[in-house]
Specification:
Strand content: under 5%
Order of helices and strands: HHHHHHHHHHHH
Distance between the termini: 36 Å
Shape: globular
Structural class: mainly alpha
Low-confidence stretches: 1-9, 143-152, 159-166
Largest sheet: none
Mean pLDDT: 75
Radius of gyration: 24 Å
Number of helices: 12
Amino acid sequence: MALNEVQNEFKDASEQGCTYELIIRGIAISTVEEMRKSLSMARRLELSGDSVKYPDYPYTAEEDVEAVTKSLDELQPLVGQFSDSSYSNNFHTYQSKLSHLLHRLEHVDDGETTRRSELLARTLTILDELHRRAEEFTKSKSVSPQLSFLEQNEFSANIHPTRQSSSSSPPRASPVAIKPILPNKWALKFSGDKKGLSLSAFLERVEELRVARHVSKEILLESGIDLFTGRAYQFYLAYRSQVTTWDDFVGLLREEYLSANYNEKLFEEIRHRT
């Protein structure tokens, strides 16, 4: 992961989120800006394999549940009123906070399984609503000018009707628009687990379905909740805001999940297909 990507990972982190991430690493807390810098450096060390040993986890399950519940109560109405693109500051802030809550829920022990499951479902629901609202906002901005243009043409045609002579050719049939079949109908998800589908097989299948079902790469980029699960979905949440195209995100996936024995695994997949 590049330095600027590590810095971006915490650039929208709240004071509460920074405090939590530093405390579980045993690092002293200070101002929000200083805490973000400390987290970025700690993350760089972790990725390079030089991180210091974490202290024992300092929070109880009850404290985690209470903190996550309080944060969700604050975020839910904000997301419910969200009306902006996925490139806006508010989108990045809300997504960063929700990603932090997902991470914190991982530490809730088995004694709180029911409450953890409920909070996890609630967090993912709010996150899904955030992405849905951002997608709807983007679509509304891209569709409105087109509708306006069509309405203007219709208005102009009503004012200046043209006569069609008997010798004129019949009107051409308008092309039929093909409705795309979106990724939530594909029954295809990548988890990143060793026992699951490999990244190469997943990406190959995604491209096949994308072409066959008339889905753009822009839609793929916004369909993380439908295409990823488990750790891979958390990876998507962490890095979605750092890329602008599906191809860029695929590049990050390859960096993260393609192991040193990638060629051998690919050969095995090809061998089993034949």
